[in-house]
Design goal:
The chain has seven helices and six strands. It is α/β, with parallel strands linked by helices. The structure holds nicotinamide-adenine-dinucleotide. Nicotinamide-adenine-dinucleotide binds next to helix 1, helix 4 and helix 6.
């Protein structure tokens, strides 16, 4: 169905992003992977997806907190894979702390990676999507784009921001063949959530299973 299209999926070395990359590759799209991790494991993942789905798969180690690296990632995808038709803004991090204890640098990092990266990537891909009058932009927000939880101020603010950005881009592209949507997942057991479970077990001196029940 997506044969000949190219997709960038940010944060696709793990969790939800990897699942999305697999689904897009399975539908025939060429892929630009992104995210952190062990270089040899990422190369094995890249080569494995290319073989499994018979599509071209590239990798960019761009740090989503750096706008220049985001623009480099889009340039690399365009040069190596022929253009960017689909952008999935998925990379994200979490930090859990009360507002008065929330470290300034964690606030800045969560806003940069979970919100500002979406803006920089969209800005970088829109001109070429407009020139082809086709594009699909999918921002992975969260139920925390709609409701709040205590101790997640930066994450909740960023995800609410993602929904606002999504609506604005959707309006600005409404008369074109480009769509911009957000998805608001609930809990998915990925490394991002496992860390919160492990931290709570350690903090409260309870088992990992008990921490899982308490968190959910
Ligand atoms: P994860 O920790 O499994 O994966 C995060 C990915 O982002 C990894 O590939 C990681 O390397 C990458 N990443 C982190 N910082 C980066 C940076 N600075 N630059 C580039 N890549 C970076 O997390 P996940 O649970 O799969 O989360 C993916 C998205 O889904 C996030 O936006 C998250 O907020 C959202 N989400 C997750 C859940 C959940 O319950 N897991 C629920 C709702 C929304």
């Amino acid at each position: 169905m997506l044969k000949g299209k190219t997709a960038i999926v940010t944060g696709s070395t793990s969790g939800i992003g990897l699942g999305i990359a697999r689904a897009l590759g399975g539908a025939g799209a060429n892929l630009m992977l992104n995210g952190f991790g062990d270089a040899a494991q990422i190369e094995a993942l890249r080569a494995g997806l290319a073989k499994e789905f018979g599509v071209k798969v590239g990798y960019s180690g761009a740090d989503m907190s750096k706008s220049a690296q985001i623009h480099d990632m889009v340039r690399k995808a365009t040069q190596e894979l022929g253009g960017v038709d689909i952008l999935v803004n998925n990379a994200g991090i979490q930090h859990v702390s009360k507002v008065e204890d929330f470290p300034d640098d964690r606030w800045d990092a969560v806003i940069a990676i979970n919100l500002s990266s979406n803006f920089h990537a969209i800005k970088a891909v829109l001109p070429q999507m407009r020139s082809r009058n086709w594009g699909r932009i999918v921002n992975i927000a969260s139920v925390h784009g709609l409701v709040a939880s205590a101790e997640k101020s930066a994450y909740v603010a960023a995800k609410h921001g993602v929904l606002g950005l999504t609506k604005t881009v959707a309006l600005e592209t409404a008369a074109t063949g480009i769509t911009c949507n957000a998805i608001c997942p609930g809990w998915v057991l990925t490394p991002l959530v496992q860390k919160q479970i492990d931290d709570r077990a350690k903090r409260d001196g309870i088992s990992v299973d008990q921490a899982k029940v308490k968190l959910l």
